[in-house]
Amino acid sequence: MVPQGNETDGEMVLDTTTFEQVQQQHQQNKLVVGYALTSKKKKSFLQPKLEVLARKKGISFVSIDQDKPLSEQGPFDVVLHKLLGNEWHEVIEDFEQKHPEVTVLDPPRAIQRIYNRQSMLQGIADLNLADCDGMICVPKQMVVLKDTTSSADEVAEAGLKFPLVAKPLLVDGTAKSHQLFLAYDRLSLAELEPPLVLQEFVNHGGVLFKVFVVGDVIKVVRRFSLPNVSNCEKAKVAGVFQFPRVSSAAASVDKSDLDPRVAELPPKPLLEGLVRELRNRLGLRLFNIDIIREHGSTDVFYVIDINYFPGYGKMPDYEQVFIDFFVNLAQAKHNKRQSVKSGIEM
């Protein structure tokens, strides 16, 4: 059985590269990256520029055949994947145990935590970010598993204030799991489909910061988001409204289009501290964080979402960033082998 792809089209990518060809590539290249991606993810990530840069550095990309045992393919130095399904996770975890010399990006057990929006943001407010030029918070939120009709009372008991952002509880790779809604009043909650997470909407000047992480590298991109909701609007507007998709390239915004107080990026020390803590806590090396700045504040920020292996094609110069990342992995492996060899000779 082929695992479910973590993209809306769900189509897997197969490759006709033979085992012998991969072995020859491994001998000729510094690093062989086996990948298990859907056709949509392959198209957006494996751009011609990336592959050209990779070849110049002796890095090759080889598609993993879903219909063959993973241990019979390769040899790989790195396995890059973004697929869902327990079967695939078991395949990768078994492969990790049998081949500890291969770098898996990233371990399924680490990814699983951020596929659940209840556990995704847990503990972020408690991270050690002292002396980082700012404060990191998370919006108040609650989980609704079954009946949204009776959840209005639970919302009041939890101290959440309208409007509320409604997000599907699980991120399963479908378009539906990325649909977000804004509920303005108690009655509108009945229109929502559980299971979901209800999160207080924080006014943020209509700008969201997407923080891309590739190993130790951090890149920030501004995106348009929902405008502030005034007290007058809260009193007059009712119902549920669907969010536009802020992840689209058209949603990118140039700093010159904005009020400098809104456009200013989060402080570098704050981002470095946040990414360092999350990388250690989550065990991930490829992810992005969605951050907003509280309207009227200069140093209060909210983390509202975390994504594994996001759309890096929208990150400036992602090709060179990934090449440097893979080159560093190759160098680290070489250094480790040399260290082991020196130890044996001694």
UniProtKB/TrEMBL annotation:
EC id: 2.7.1.134
In this entry, which stretches build a coiled coil? Answer: none
* Entry keywords, A to Z: ATP-binding, Kinase, Magnesium, Metal-binding, Nucleotide-binding, Transferase
Q: Where does Mg(2+) 2 bind?
A: 305, 307
Stretches assigned to the Inositol-tetrakisphosphate 1-kinase N-terminal domain: 32-111
What is catalyzed by this enzyme?
1D-myo-inositol 3,4,5,6-tetrakisphosphate + ATP = 1D-myo-inositol 1,3,4,5,6-pentakisphosphate + ADP + H(+)
Residues given in the record as Mg(2+) 1 binding sites: 290, 305
Listed binding positions for ATP are 117, 167, 199-210, 225
**From the UniProt record, which GO molecular function terms apply?**
ATP binding; inositol-1,3,4-trisphosphate 5-kinase activity; inositol-1,3,4-trisphosphate 6-kinase activity; inositol-3,4,5,6-tetrakisphosphate 1-kinase activity; metal ion binding
This protein's cofactor list reads: Mg(2+)
Q: Where does 1D-myo-inositol 1,3,4-trisphosphate bind?
A: 41, 82, 178, 210, 307, 311
Q: Which residues form the Inositol 1,3,4-trisphosphate 5/6-kinase ATP-grasp domain?
A: 133-327
Q: What detail does the entry give on cofactor binding?
A: Binds 2 magnesium ions per subunit.
Describe, as the record does, how this protein assembles with itself and its partners.
Monomer.
Note the PANTHER family from the entry: INOSITOL-TETRAKISPHOSPHATE 1-KINASE (PTHR14217:SF27)
Q: Which family does it belong to?
A: Belongs to the ITPK1 family.
What is the annotated role of this protein in its UniProt record? Kinase that can phosphorylate various inositol polyphosphate such as Ins(3,4,5,6)P4 or Ins(1,3,4)P3.
**The protein's name in its UniProt record:** Inositol-tetrakisphosphate 1-kinase
Q: Which organism is it from?
A: Cardamine amara subsp. amara
